[in-house]
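Response to reviewer comment R2.3. The reviewers asked that we include at least one raw input/output pair. We reproduce the pair for Pilus assembly protein CpaE here without editing.
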Amino acid sequence: MDNQDIIVCVADDLGLRVWLERSVDGAWPIDFVASSDLNRVIKMVEATRSCLVFVAVDDAEPDRTLRVISALVKSYPNLNVVTLAKRVTQDHLLKSMRAGARDCFLSDSDAEEMRAQIKVLLTREKTPAAGGGRTEDRARPLVNLITSVSSTVDTRFLTQSYAFAAAQRRPGQRILAIDTSATERHVFYLDSNNRLTLNDLLLSSDSLDESLVDTALEEYVPGLRMLAGNLPLANLTEERNADLFIAFAQLMQMFDYIVINVDPLLADYWVKVIGLQVSRLVMAIHPVVEQAHLAREKFQSWDSELSEKCARLLLVDGYEDKIPPGLSQLEAAVGVHSLGALPLDWSNRLLAMNAGIPIHSLPRRSAFNRKLDSMLKRADERLAGGKSQGKAANTLRRA
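Raw output as returned:
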């Protein structure tokens, strides 16, 4: 038996868990997980490389079941998702199928017949969840989450500049920048003419597709679109967690590169919901020892929410070469490698912010922009080197 034969069951009902174990009768191992923490559900599916997931129907909250199914299917399109129920109405069965479930097993089903059906489901599709449900790893977008431990660090400007620099370095790619600190008039420090916000997507994820996004979000430069992503803290409920995960999973299928400015007050929430999808988590701090210690604590608290493949990086903003602490000292204090250090270059920042244009568009040279370009160039080179090593290792293993 290989690890692709592990079954994951999302169930809160102890009775359904016991019934499933008895029905399977040891033919396949089953890992159980509660439905309340969607990120943990996804992490369990990815860790087990499961091809089959059972989702128990919660009679008290049937919509939660639909959200879990939808999140699983949008994250892993080839995954077999089957509902478990003590009883089911025709209406809920139809909704489950529309959400992506392939079948429904009732708790009074014959055990032998059920095992035969499970065997068919497991042999029907042998694409494990760890493959992302996609045929190639390269189809998975690079997701950059930029945040801080202090509101004094201007992650809006950093993320805006990061996104424009990425667009210059990645011609032909589809890039999305999300600003969780957006206002009614501005996404980042740019005038906003978009007719779509992240909140709109959460309310109507069923109608979200590439044509809608392309129509509603204008391109600021070729390939780069920006989305207002401000979500009030008071509205960040468990129900909204699933909606955000589902909407973000859909956006990941439409873009090659995503960069998100996450307000420090919202960072715990965002990391909990989409942490497993993040490729680079960039912690921006000033060269202040207290911020470095806080950043270390944050990274430690988020460790279980992030994928092992996620690069945890430090970005020092407002850095002065001749004033301690040095970059290596800050790296040691935080406990992660640095993406780089950026100078304050206040006059150019201020001019770009007030003019509502990216800093690279200024008519004069900018030390900030020059450092940012070289920093992202090094990061992309390291990423390409890591992928080459990974492919070589896979080739050796196959040999």
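DSSP finds 14 helices and 15 strands in the chain. The radius of gyration is 23 Å. Further pairs are available on request from the corresponding author.
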